[in-house]
Design brief:
alpha+beta, FAD/NAD(P)-binding domain, Elongation Factor Tu (Ef-tu), domain 3, 2 domains
Amino acid sequence: MSSAQKIAIIGGGAAGFFAAIAAKQHWPDASVCILEKSNKFLAKVKISGGGRCNITHDSPDINELSKAYPRGSTQLRKAFHQFSATDTVQWFESRGIPLKIYPDGCIFPLANDSQVIIDCFLNTCKQLGVKLHTQQHISKIDVNCENVSIHNNDEMQTFDHIIICAGGHPKRSSLHWLETIGLEIVEPRPSLFTFNMPKNPICELMGTVVPNATVKIEGTKLSGQGPLLVTHWGMSGPAVLLLSAWGARLLADKNYQFAILVNWLDQKKEEALRQDLLHTISAHGAKKLSNWNPTPLTNRLWNHLLERAEISSDLRWAEIGKKALNKLINTLLNDRFEVQGKTTFKEEFVTAGGVSLSEIDFQTMKSKKFPRLSFAGEVLDIDGITGGFNFQAAWTTGFIAGKHALSYSI
């Protein structure tokens, strides 16, 4: 292979750095560079996970791992055989970054600081000789059988191969430069967002956490399970974020105006709860409802739900009638809220949409139409639920793109 061969990575985020490192390791004689449009690299890595960087999820089973992706699960199931979550753990630990697995399966650096991940990437690129460039504004690319040219800061540069890791974009217009060369673009839509409930009294309980709840979109089969957080604008937490990911396109079509049904007691069924409450009435009938909370919910939330059910907290358990009991059960298991809008974490936004997966050969991450172009990361129509899955998709697709960058079957 001639040392003149050049590989460019467009995008200096998670997928971009992983692709560049893999490219240089598999094609050591090639010149590899990263072209980042902003003035800093790895900005999303820096702030992810509250600045701790949830690098992946403890999912050694590839079939289980692939189920965490509302879009891209089938394609990633094949890709994970080349680079899995287990490979991610080994990759970072072999570079001197100890990791910690938390009870929920999330994996973070033991240092609990995303900077150790950033330093690892920057140092590895320096050791390998990967060139790093910021403020590179790509406006157009030209592809032919022999090379790829990019129009960058009013200049044109030619490369043997380009790996596009441009990240997710909330607007289709941001991907126009890819659409103009004939690539199919799936309309971008936000994923992983919280639910806004303006002026709903539940917001007065901001900061309240329910460790296990189930949230459903009314009129659909979509549901999310896990911790639920009440915020000053509505609801958040893994249960809501999970639901927002699986319902990303449906909720966009509804213009984010919909209703949710909350089971505050996880997946508790009506008959089981009824028996629990009848036992409470029998055993603690002389006590006021406000003083005897038979649920795992906080007393603050318990009293709020009594108010929502229009039941006096001064009522004694022995005095609760059948009608009030039924209303309490319904409130605990099927509490209805109107959602009027969403809040996305602007710095950590995740999108459904991007380059259509039908355009990509997932054995190599190359474009089926343009073999001198590869794609990795969120620029593709791939997104995962919360828990380290989006980074895993970035590592996997970036690794494969770099590994196969200069291998051609044409």
